[in-house]
Design goal:
By secondary structure, the protein is an alpha+beta fold. The protein contains three helices and 13 strands.
């Protein structure tokens, strides 16, 4: 059975057609002027402490933007003009002022900083050019990567839980913060190749596991760059 909602002006639709006994099926939805379909999967909702905290941060950021003065809100809107990002379908879209406010302030909150009411200089960070290795040393994960970061940049480090066999590749939503706090995973610059030695407090990873590794550059005002991912790395 398909449950469909037509969207004005009636050339797009959204809904879910279910499989046998109401399971599985296909989700249809519009993005811009195009229609998309994907297989329905149960959402990954582990209700972890980090996930709950991220939800609280997003709520705090949304409430923070709503509480801005008109002048400050307009400043964020002006700063966002021309900033292009890609959505999950690979389409380009321009950030809104609220998007940009949440983007910057989410990383600030994760790093233990207060919300900022005025848009900072949007200095783009350098890039991660390669991820060389990941090893388990005692209770630490040690990741080595080459980069073109500036001395004022940071790196936000995430990995996946152990993958089920070397043939499986990590998906973008598999990556997790594996330290006890988000701030511990936002690492200041060190010369390239940089060694990231972080306590593995949340996931259970051992040598011989395969994991995905993600390194996200952040500029000095927490403006993010482009994440570098290796979706299947052997832990030595």
């Amino acid at each position: 059975m398909a449950i469909v909602t037509y969207v004005s002006p009636f050339e797009t639709f959204r809904g879910r057609s279910t499989g046998p006994l109401g399971s599985g099926g296909v989700v249809t939805y519009p993005i811009g002027s195009a229609n998309y379909a994907r297989a329905f999967v149960d959402p990954d909702n582990p209700e972890s402490a980090h996930q709950i905290l991220i939800r609280a941060y997003l709520t705090q950021a949304a409430q923070g933007f709503s509480a801005l003065s008109s002048a400050n809100a307009d400043a964020w809107r002006a700063a966002a003009v021309g900033i292009i990002r890609k959505n999950t379908a690979g389409q380009d879209y321009e950030l809104s002022g609220a998007n940009l406010y949440s983007l910057i302030n989410l990383y600030r909150l994760m790093d233990g900083q207060a919300l900022t009411a005025t848009p900072p200089a949007l200095t783009a960070p350098g890039s991660i050019t390669s991820i060389t290795s990941v090893t388990k040393t005692g209770t630490d994960l040690v990741i080595v990567a080459a980069h073109t970061l500036a001395a004022t940049d940071f790196t936000f480090v995430r990995v996946t839980a152990p993958l089920s066999g070397s043939a499986r590749l990590a998906r973008p939503n598999d990556y997790r913060t594996f330290t006890a706090t988000f701030a511990a995973s936002i690492v200041p610059y060190a010369a390239t190749p940089q060694t990231y030695t972080l306590p593995e407090d949340v996931l259970s990873i051992i040598a011989t596991d395969y994991v995905g590794v993600e390194l996200l550059p952040l500029g000095p005002t927490y403006y993010p760059g482009v994440a570098r991912r290796d979706p299947s790395m052997l832990v030595a």
